[in-house]
Amino acid sequence: MVLGAWPSPFMLRVRIALHLKSINYEFIEVDLLGPKSELVLKSNPIYKKIPVLFHDGNTILESQTILQYIDEVWPNAPSILPSDAAQRADSRFWVAYFDDKLVPALIIALAAKSKDTKNAAIAELEQGLVHLEEAASTKLSKGKALFGGENLGYMDIALGPFLVWIGIIEKLNGVKLLNETNTPSLLRWADSFFSHAVVKTIFPEAEKLIEFAMKLIPVLRARPELRLLLGISD
Length: 234
Known about the structure:
CATH topology of the largest domain: Glutathione S-transferase Yfyf (Class Pi), Chain A, domain 2
Shape: globular
Number of domains: 2
Strand order of the largest sheet: 2-1-3-4
Order of helices and strands: EHEHEEHHHHHHHHH
Number of helices: 11
Strand content: 5-15%
Number of strands: 4
Radius of gyration: 18 Å
Oligomer: single chain
CATH architecture of the largest domain: Up-down Bundle
Helix content: 55-70%
Structural class: mainly alpha
């Protein structure tokens, strides 16, 4: 059983992994625009966030941890993490980098009121994507379309769900974060990611996500824990 919300990129990580492994599961929907649900607060009292995976009497928290749990508990092909220890460590590094550095910048670029705050976040996103491009140009060499090779791997599953949100920020701010000049490898990878059968099956329509994003912005601005991050002092 999985507790989550359909627009959440963190939830999409888990759903992609479960579908990739052909694992049947029950999906419990949470409303991201409303108050925190009691089930979320009870299941994840530390971070109070989704997704949450319930399996075999265990409660598994945080999308990165859940992906690794799925790969270990269901080792059937296709594997999510690389078989090589160094490659596994490298993949984990880049996903952690994305979550620690780029996800906060994405939130700020989406919801900040101040133009200066928003522009600073967009600049941070641009720089972060250039760093990812450097890794992608090496990892996607020799004709590889995906970080996982012929199939979706850990980096594909972790980073891919944020592509639509990057596109939303591009549209709202009149910028092009992924482009042929600065991120050609990532641009081609994005096309390969969206062409994958599992992604086509479960990914929400871009129009629905844009509509949701417009509703989410005032919710983010109203959260006390995010007001300083978003540069809101009033």
